[in-house]
UniProtKB/TrEMBL annotation, chain A:
This is ABC transporter ATP-binding protein. Coiled coil: none annotated. Pfam families: ABC_tran. Gene3D superfamilies: P-loop containing nucleotide triphosphate hydrolases. It comes from Streptomyces guryensis. Keywords: ATP-binding, Nucleotide-binding. InterPro entries: AAA+_ATPase, ABC_transporter-like_ATP-bd, ABC_transporter-like_CS, P-loop_NTPase. GO terms for molecular function: ATP binding; ATP hydrolysis activity. Residues 20-250 form the ABC transporter domain.
Automatic annotation (TrEMBL), chain B:
Keywords: Antibiotic resistance, Cell membrane, Membrane, Transmembrane, Transmembrane helix, Transport. GO terms for molecular function: ABC-type transporter activity. The chain crosses the membrane at residues 43-61, 73-93, 114-138, 150-173, 180-199, 241-259. Pfam families: ABC2_membrane. This is Transport permease protein. One of its GO terms (cellular component) is ATP-binding cassette (ABC) transporter complex. One of its GO terms (biological process) is response to antibiotic. Its main location: membrane. It is found in: Cell membrane.
Amino acid sequence: MMNYSPDPPADPPASLTPAVRAEGVTVVRGPRTVLRGLDFTVPRGQITGLLGPSGCGKSTLMRSIVGTQAKVTGTLAVLGSPAGHPTLRTRIGYVTQAPSVYNDLTVRQNLDYFTAILAPALSASDRRHEIDRVLTDVDLTSHADALAGNLSGGQRSRVSLAVALLGTPELLVLDEPTVGLDPVLRRDLWTLFHSIAADRGATLLISSHVMDEAERCHRLLLMRKGEILADDTPDALRTRTGAETVEAAFLHLVDEAATAAHEKETTR
Amino acid sequence: MSTTTTTTGTTTAPVPTGALNASRTAATAARVLRQLRHDPRTIAMMILIPCVMLFLLRYVFDGSPRTFDNIGASLLGIFPLITMFLVTSIATLRERTSGTLERLLAMPLGKGDLIAGYALAFGTLAIIQSALATALAVWFLGLDVTGSPWLLLLVALLDALLGTALGLFVSAFAASEFQAVQFMPAVIFPQLLLCGLFTPRDNMHPALETISDVLPMSYAVDGMNEVLKHTDMTANFVRDILIVAGCALLVLGLGAATLRRRTA
């Protein structure tokens, strides 16, 4: 999509560099090649859905983008810097699949600590405002003083999401943020994601294995077995495959890939 | 490490996150203490058990107060080491398995901030624990200390730091709480047997004596006994506390090396 000459005379403006640009990204974990030479870009200011069955490499790709995955080869530029660059640590919000919060602290104490790490210079009142803002975003204001360990699974994963929303990051990497949530809450969160993209111009990369969530994304990356099957808008995907839903389009693409592989095998 | 991620994008000067940041360190220490405050039973046990043990010991050796002096002083150095070892190894293991460590290391938190935060929090607890145990032993149980009780407290604090450092280090090699607890007999018991608590080190088999010469707990116990027997700071005492402090720093450094921002 957007390609720059290897030695640009000046840095391209931030609005032009894609949020994520991957060229030949490969990850090997033990004996297994989890990601196989991925090429894609994630445009800024939009919601990109990362979809695929469990175990297809979604989380590994997200960890590579955030910079916590070891043994990443290829080119992976995030917000114009190499993935894992120290300057990116305040610019990316990351939510792991399992909620990573302290169960023996209250919701507010959790947020208070992570704010202190992200923005140590913030005054006490600014910090409180920031925490109140993210609590409202994830609809947990009434549970602010509850121990994270006493919350339900869905509530705990919203605490984890709230931590990622601290400090208005430019890129939000959310690994299955809506899993196990009731339909009303899921709708509310997707409304929140859209407003984050529209109002703050932030980029969201959201993984899911629930295909009906794909319809809510601006763009989709369909993954299977460590490879990118498609990189397109939901509409274009449906038109191209002549399918009614993204789920049907995905299945169509899987079958197509299987047939192609089979033909290659037999013609050899 | 073995990452070969490259880019043609912009490269900006790195934000200094490696050096110690006072407010991030303080925030981490406060967070660790807050976590413990939600667990009052652990705090009570950490503080009371050494006192109860000393109390017991005093009446076990009711007939020979000299023995109580020797063993009691040694134990004042050993308790903080063991407690802090256990608490730190479990706390850091939890941090590793719950995903909070990965989250923190994806944030602008220096490894030094995290380790110093833990050391500060558990050091504070160790001071309270040691102060109570020392006060009880010296003023109520008649532990006969020739030197200053403040020096006992200093050694106890350094021992606590050593325990924190060892706990942090071994937590990297434990995949579960079960394994972490097993490191206690593996790392602490040999030192306990060889540190001179049960029999003077020069009475041991020469091979064991040599081993005990390189184990930090031997110096922790020796330091306590120096305070017990001498009115002023002896050269041996200074050597002992320097060795314990040096070991603590060395192991903390090794512990920092086990915190990886990128993991497989």
